[in-house]
Design a protein that fits this description.
Elements (H helix, E strand, L loop, with lengths): L1 H20 E3 L10 H12 L4 H11 L9 H4 L5 H20 L8 H9 L1 E4 L29 H14 L6 E8 L1 H4 L9 H4 L3 H11 L9 H4 L2 H7 L2 E5 L1 H4 L8 E7 L4 E6 L12 H12 L5 H12 L8 H7 L3
Helix pairs in contact: 1-2, 2-3, 2-5, 3-5, 7-10, 10-12
């Protein structure tokens, strides 16, 4: 158990630091790009590679980064769901390639991420200083089943509703101001379930009518709901240079609601619930796990899985966990 925890922490650190070091082109989606190096580094670590093999394996893995498009998610194109799986698969295969001398040029990483998929690769971001938190300690958990960029707008919108108790008929218009990356999630005419996960107008509308933003809102009944579609057309997402200055250390959004009398209500959220400083409690994480797995695990099986993971550092046989995870 302790060995597994150690590997998870290190694997997370590998992947996170490759992400930090990379500056992708604006058109690229992060999935399927630098994640392949994180997957390769983790697989090489587990395989017990020496330093030279480790370096060669990570270096050649960059060759398998995909030319991903951010618009795949916005348009609801399911190729987006293949990106991450491809990165994991090719990261694992990089172990075999490195051990059979199928190597890449020495400057492979820099070339791929400085001139082909990105505009720069900062090697110093790979260095971890002493007495600094592991990146996994800075992780966030999503309380909402939307793209992370949607979370601050949801929190700000909910805050206004809690204070003003406004209903759909009382709202004339909603403006959402946010940083550049999040401002691309502006589509009022979302095409399918995937694209609605990347639509701030849909998130605001479904929150207003159903007071929830979990996975249960992604069904055809709500996706095609006429009232929700009409209200989504009242939500306008706009770029804010002021909020851009705080990204990516913060993921801010300011929501402005204009009611039918012309009154304006505004709220800003810099870090959404679940992020650094606003972490979910252990009970909230357990509830999220139970909700997401209720369709495949019985309550008794869920409790056994939770108990095993809660005491993972004392376990000596991890095979038991995989037995517990099997569908009955």
């Amino acid at each position: 158990g302790q060995e597994l925890i150690s590997m998870i922490i290190k694997g997370y650190e590998y992947c996170s630091r490759f992400g930090r070091a990379t500056t992708l082109l604006p058109e690229a989606h992060a999935h399927g790009t630098w994640g392949v190096m994180g997957a390769a580094a983790t697989a090489l670590m587990i395989d017990g590679a020496d330093e030279a093999t480790f370096q060669e394996g990570v270096n050649l893995s960059a060759s398998f980064s995909l030319p991903t498009l951010w618009t795949s998610a916005l348009e609801g194109k399911l190729i987006r769901n293949i990106y991450a799986g491809h990165a994991i698969e090719m990261g694992m295969k990089s172990v075999i390639f490195a051990r059979t001398n199928h190597l890449a040029p020495k400057n492979n990483v820099s070339t791929v991420f400085s001139t082909i998929l990105g505009s720069g690769f900062n090697w110093t971001d790979l260095e971890r200083g002493k007495n600094v938190p592991w990146d996994i300690e800075l992780n966030y958990f999503k309380p909402y089943a939307f793209c992370r960029y949607v979370h601050s707008p949801i929190d700000a919108f909910k805050s206004i509703l809690d204070k003003q108790q406004l209903g759909p008929d009382q709202i004339e218009k909603i403006n959402v101001f946010t940083y550049a990356r999040a401002s691309s999630l502006l589509h009022q005419d979302y095409e399918n379930i995937l694209s609605s996960k990347f639509s701030i107008p849909f998130a605001i509308a479904v929150q207003l009518y159903h007071q929830k933003a979990n996975q249960s809102v992604f069904i055809d009944q709500l996706h095609k709901d006429k009232e929700i579609k009409e209200f989504a057309k009242k939500v306008f997402v706009q770029y804010s240079a002021e909020l851009e200055k705080d990204y990516p250390l913060q993921m801010p959004a300011r929501v402005e609601i204009i009611d039918s009398y012309g009154n304006i209500y505004s709220e800003r959220v810099d870090i959404a619930k679940g992020g650094p400083g606003k972490k979910l409690s252990e009970s909230e994480l357990i509830e999220k796990f139970k909700t997401l797995t209720s369709a495949v695990y019985s309550s008794n099986q869920q409790d056994k899985i939770i108990d095993f993971i809660t005491h993972l550092e004392t376990e000596t046989n991890i095979e038991k966990l995989f037995v517990l995870l099997e569908l009955k």
